[in-house]
Fold this sequence. Notes:
α2 (23-39) packs antiparallel against α3 (47-58). This protein has a four-stranded antiparallel beta sheet with strand order 3-1-2-8. The protein has a four-stranded antiparallel beta sheet with strand order 5-6-4-7, with helices on both faces. 33% of the residues are buried. By secondary structure, it is of the alpha+beta class. The protein contains nine helices and eight strands.
Amino acid sequence: MSGHSKWSQIKRQKGANDVRRGAIFTKMGREIAVAARAGGGDPDGNFRLRLAIEKARAVNMPADTIKRAVEKATGGGEGEQFEEIVYEGYGPGGVAVLVEAATDNRNRTAAEVRSIFSKAGGQLAGSGAVAWQFEQRGVVAVPRASADPDEVALLAIDAGASDVETTTDPLEIYTEPGDLEGVQKALLAAGVAIESADTAMIAKQTVAVDAARARQNLRLVEHLEDLEDVQRVTSNLELTDEILAEVAG
């Protein structure tokens, strides 16, 4: 799971820029809308919606904006209809890339995603081409300074977690998707501070490429994430300490 931990580190380092760009609110609004339309507008009875709202609050999305996104999605067919689509492709050096999108125009999004892959020296692939290299997991992040890592690991495993990374900051707890809610509730009940909780696609194995291609793949991921329709991009690129230091700089 260490590959996901390194990707999470990059996300935290560039997160402030995402917020400044303003696009993050659009993406959060779409995620809330899709979750509300799929499972209803009550977050108490819709765990996916509750997660989406928690993520929106974490980036300081106004409460009124969150409320409007839910009401718009559950208002009986008015407003935009977002469709969830997963695009699969290869970055330079054969790196597998998954692109999760929420779009109201499938043709536009496909064209934009294809163009970015092409410009980056990669290519869009057919459905199923790379998805088998990933698995969906629940991921709970716990600030390392807030609790004893060994105690957190024991609590999480007792609650049903399948793996815990105790060497990272934040600590990362992995679950089966259906166990995420139960593990999150158990940690909160024990007084453990939670930085985030969400589902994620985790690479089963990472792929190493040279430094130049690693930079190309990082630019590919960043350009894909800049698209308004794209909610999340996942790669099986193996990140070296050299590349992480570059990103941090």
